[in-house]
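TA notes. Do not distribute before section.
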Amino acid sequence: MIELTLYLIGTLIGIPCMVLTIQSTETYQNMVSRKIFDRKPFTCALCMTFWTALAYNLTCDVSLFRAVLMAFISAMVAEYIYAKL
């Protein structure tokens, strides 16, 4: 039960916070402005969180449905946190 709780907290809160922290650094913003990371998944908090969470969930050996569901929820949490920043 504790493992499941830690997994949910790590996925639903940890991944969005990690992605937003990375995207808010000055180094990352310089890479975006220099057109190194100028593509959609890297410039959008929702997209980058979705793909990061999906990759993480698929490597944690969960079902495809659960991995996609957790990625969607993580992306929505990231968008909410980004709006509040």
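Switch to the second chain here.
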Amino acid sequence: MTELEEYMSQFITFLAHREKNPDAHISALPLDIMTNKEFAKDPMSIDAPNTNDYAEDDVTADEDIVTNAAEKYRKYEELAR
């Protein structure tokens, strides 16, 4: 059933592109699911994480890059354990 829905969505988009509809990329979106844009809302502020937040251990990014095929496989084996 989902494949049929996906096919129909692509077909609707194709027909909209063929008719040179300026909103062709969103023509297959159901209007009852789309929400109204609230223009009166305050802008959202997104705090970027620190660059060091991702590292849980003392390994730096330079030490983590492996280019040799044998080392890549060894690194994969270590991560797979």
